[in-house]
Amino acid sequence: MSEKASRVRELPKARYEELVEKFRQHVRALPGGEAIDECIQCGTCSGSCPTSWAMDYSPREIIAALRAGNLEPILEGNTMWMCTSCYNCYERCPQKIRVTDLMYELKRLAVRHGIYPSRMRKSVVMAKTFVNIIENHGRNSEPTFMMRFFMKTNPLVLLTKGLKLSVKYITHGRLNLLETVFPKNIKGRDGIRKIFAKLANTELGADAPAPSKEVH
Amino acid sequence: MAAPKSYLYYPGCSLEGAANPYDTSARAMMKALGSPLKELDDWNCCGATTYFSVRELQAFALSARNLALAEQQGGSDLIVACNACFAILGKTAHYLAEKPNMKKQVNEALGEAGLHYYGKVNVRHLVDVVISDIGADQIAPKITKKLAGLKLAPYYGCLFSRPGGYADHPENPVKLDKLLATTGAQVVDWEAKTACCGGMVLQTDEKVAVRLMDSIVLEAERSGAEVLVTACPLCHVNLELAMSKVEKKRGKKFNLSVMFFTQILGLALGLSMKELGVNQMLTMTQATLKKLAA
Fold this sequence. Notes:
The structure holds two protein chains of two kinds.
Chain A: H1 13-29, H2 44-48, H3 59-67, H4 72-76, H5 79-82, H6 88-92, H7 99-113, H8 121-137, H9 142-153, H10 155-159, H11 161-171, H12 189-199
Helix pairs in contact in A: 8-9
Chain B: E1 7-10, H1 13-16, H2 20-32, H3 48-52, H4 56-72, E2 77-80, H5 83-98, H6 100-111, E3 122-125, H7 126-134, H8 136-139, E4 151-155, H9 175-181, E5 186-187, H10 201-204, H11 206-223, E6 227-230, H12 233-250, E7 257-260, H13 261-268, H14 286-293
Helix pairs in contact in B: 2-13, 4-5, 4-6, 5-6, 7-9, 11-12
């Protein structure tokens, strides 16, 4: 499934075209996903975005690229990884495009196909670490999550800034040290595993008839 | 007349972790208001922004398991104190109602765990329940300690009213303002009430998040507030972590405390600092502590 190629333009042509098609399908299968066809390139999304100044391409440009079948700015840029999920764009889009949902979908596709800029590795590691804890324990234990995340991305910080901060949280009764190693479990964790197993190979299906664009 | 509401409480992972004073104070506050919180049994992760970044249907199913449990345990309304959990559980409920095919897929998966979601749960934010269901009139006679002279900036963050505006107006929410006003404190009007704290970006790109928090802190200072009042564990922890970074960047100290809204209302209801976990707060100025102890 995942491929090593991190540069989009190095992908074989057939593979690239297959990816473009996949991206289009997935984006349109989202609830309200077909609204992307209605984009008027007004830039309300980019103007409303608290982090667009830190993005290589603005949300407006990403939508244009997606519609033009150009995956390079999407997969080689940092746009969706800079999305904080604030839903300003989602609320303000005059065409009712759910831009935040679109950013999530682009993240998922990038993770699934293993194509993202190496400088965005931290975000991907974060997501994968989190998912692993949930799938095995049902709930997230923050101490386990932070410990594993920093071990994989910046172990040194655990001995410097992280240690200082941990002491502060421990002395204020807000960090359970045991939980850095032993995460909490829910009773229904087997049930959760079964739920995930059932969906392992299922894609979000499109509804017929198409969902009304009025629903927002 | 609508059917009577039966509440269940969904704490979420953060309220079991670094935001545990939010959980403690929420329970104490609701008890003092005469509506003690009953926790949803065996709840799981809401899906969080992070899970949604990896797999979609699974994330909706994960989120929906909580809604199915709430139905099974007789809850008509699921009360959520964390903005992120609130937004995600609410979004799941609305999307499942909107997309029957997705609901079918999710229910097939839930069936594997002996569960089914019929679509009857209202996901509610704790702020909304306190001010809309209990209401200012019911709160007023219970206020035993007026917080007059305390200047508060209600900080809603993003996910209290977005997406969808289910709890309040998406751009200009007012419910936390109204709730805090019941304590007799002065609630300031300020521009950053729904500004983004940076969310998980603080962990992946600190500079970006600190710049967002910088403008929130500056605007809070301009407004004259002395306490930034949060209704979200992520906003809260981010503000705590970033305050010293903003101070370093600006080369000055800000006279700002960061507290949960449940602690403020709890104090006005006569609960002690200890019962509300105020001693567990990391960003408290001496001036605020003095006023609260008076």
